[in-house]
Automatic annotation (TrEMBL):
Record's subunit section: Homodimer and heterotetramer.
InterPro entries named in the record: KR_dom, NAD(P)-bd_dom_sf, Sc_DH/Rdtase_CS, SDR_fam
Keyword set, alphabetical order: Oxidoreductase
Family per record: Belongs to the short-chain dehydrogenases/reductases (SDR) family.
Keyword DNA-binding belongs to the record: no
Catalytic activity, reaction form: 2-hydroxyethane-1-sulfonate + NADP(+) = sulfoacetaldehyde + NADPH + H(+)
PROSITE patterns reported in the protein's UniProt record: ADH_SHORT
Organism listed in the record: Kushneria phyllosphaerae
Name used for this protein in its record: sulfoacetaldehyde reductase (NADPH)
Domain Ketoreductase: 3-187
Gene: isfD
Amino acid sequence: MNKSVFITGATSGFGRAAARRFAEAGYALVLTGRRRERLEALEQELSGKVAVHVIELDVRDEAAVKKAVDELPQKFSSVHVLLNNAGLALAPEPAQDVALQDWHTMIDTNVKGLVNVTHALLPTLIRLGAGTSIVNIGSTAGKWPYKGSHVYGATKAFVEQFSYNLRCDLQGTGVRVTDIAPGMAETEFTLVRTKGDQAASDQLYGNTTPMSAEDIAEQMFYVATLPAHLNINFLEIQPVRQVWAGMAVDRDE
Ligand SMILES: NC(=O)C1=CN([C@@H]2O[C@H](COP(=O)(O)OP(=O)(O)OC[C@H]3O[C@@H](n4cnc5c(N)ncnc54)[C@H](OP(=O)(O)O)[C@@H]3O)[C@@H](O)[C@H]2O)C=CC1
Ligand SMILES: O=CCS(=O)(=O)O
């Protein structure tokens, strides 16, 4: 049986690096995301090594997610690993200045999108049983509050608790669930968050040593390929040069 990995958000950052990492190990790839041209470029890059199936997919579209899973070609239908990676932060400004739509977009993508894909693939993962994995991408923002994180951090707290609760319900099926919670990693994340401010992105990642997409892809691969009797519940990972912020105090002038 050819094992496949189903990756959401394979067009950039962690998801694209994960596609390359799992290809190295011979997994058939189901690569999804909204940007078709990027999916096709990755398909062209990797299809000499492994079987690749690309699906232009918005995880917020419940019906499209179900259709994509139901119509997986037979060669890709043994999904041993689900990488729930698609997600985004928007609106770094304070909560009181945010456009409501940005909050909705984060909830719809990071919470409802992740739930849509998980629900659609659970029957397959349970059928295949021991050794299969759901790897959810949370964030340090799900545990550690900071200014401008508002709904983003809250969506990632959802991802953490949903992962633990899934573990409970999946006991006895052999399906593993891990929440990987990265800190600062250089991808297109900040470009998306700032709606295209390259200078802000360069400034955040400049003069320090952030994690790379490949660093996180390696962790995704690690947790998903452990011996079948092991489950890493939560894996928080930061660059050595990043630590927690301190308490903030409001003072009179
Ligand atoms: N970089 C960081 O510092 C950290 C990132 N994370 C999380 O890691 C995950 C990956 O982010 P990262 O690689 O950094 O960022 P990127 O912006 O580089 O990649 C995000 C990916 O998510 C996809 N995506 C976004 N919205 C949707 C949607 N509605 N439907 C389908 N796919 C979507 C994008 O694809 P497309 O636009 O083509 O649809 C893209 O492939 C996210 O969940 C993010 O919250 C967590 C902690 C730290
Ligand atoms: O999830 C991303 C990491 S951070 O920008 O919230 O620190």
